[in-house]
Hints:
The chain is an alpha/beta fold.
Amino acid sequence: MDIFEKIRSNKGALGQYSDVGDGYFMFPKLEGEIAPRMMFRGKEVLTWSLNNYLGLANNPEVRKADAEYAAQYGLGYPMGARMMSGHTTNHEKFEQMAAEFVGKESAYLLNYGYQGMVSIIDALVDRHDVIVYDSESHACIMDGLRLHFGKRFVYAHNDIESCEKQLQRATKLTEDTGGGILVITEGVFGMAGDLGKLDKIAALKKKYNFRFLVDDAHGLGTMGATGAGTGEHFGVQDQIDLYFATFAKSMAGIGGFIAGNKDIITYLRFNLRSQIYAKALPMAMTLGAIKRLELIKAHPEIIEKLWTIVRALQKGLKEVGLDLGRTESPVTPVFMKATLFQTSQLLLDLRENFGIFCSVVIYPVVPKDVVMLRLIPTAVHSLKDVDYTVNAFRELKWKLDNDVYPHVIADFSK
């Protein structure tokens, strides 16, 4: 069979919606300055869809620094991969700062978070080793697992009893293979907003011999007393062997880092294929990351402002009877019972009539006849924004409960 013909006959789980949702459900265009209010299809909307948790994307100090660094260095320098010609003192400076911030001996700066995680998993384990991982792990973890030639055992999401059973299986297997065990989970699960049970997994180290890798992309800058992440929140940062975070969320940038014991980070520096064979993070972005981390450390009140908005939004939505699932973080999912037809009408109503833009998640990411509206509060939202949004969602819920929306696919082409 011709590969292209196969693709045309099966567009994929999400691609099946491309004829009705492209440009509206998926691939929407938000335009203008990054802010709580942006432009969507020519109209201003109150935006709850950007992972700009601390509001650093348009922080005046950050914007000024980014502009100066870009003017000084351009976006080309340094040219080449870190190992060959792309290594600088400022890359090292950020690594020292990051390691200190998250309480680790050493850190390594990555050009991209997603590819970094894929490479980290690939470099850490061989065919004799076993990986134990959470069933709701991010796609970057799942893609890293695909490169693993050894066994991998999945445990039910945040189910410590299930995790322990898989550790028992892994322990028995590695007694025969002579390999080791790597446990992987997330600090904050970015879709539903719940926290990985890092404290309970860490406690299993007393019974089982494994190393612990945590993806804390949504936790850095949002969780813990200083923003050092979900490990700090639970008081088990020292039990996390490898701490991974990206810049795409609270630091409003591109890149990431991995932190841990110095000898292991040194090993990763020489073995991460996504870094050895790809260009280093540009200088402007590296210095921008330094500036962002300095601001997070110097201004803990930004984190408190974020949580003021988070608490108000989540409290208000719960009080009008909406289901926020199991979130324990700024990520605010709103689950509603709705058919695909109702979902399309609801989304049109929300964006066109209420002027609110948030991400919409449908089957197969959530069960059939369920829609998840995912809101991301930030430190630059206001309590007035919260009140307006809660009132709008109250009306949306009433319309769904009273079957107001017509059972036809909304026309997004206008």
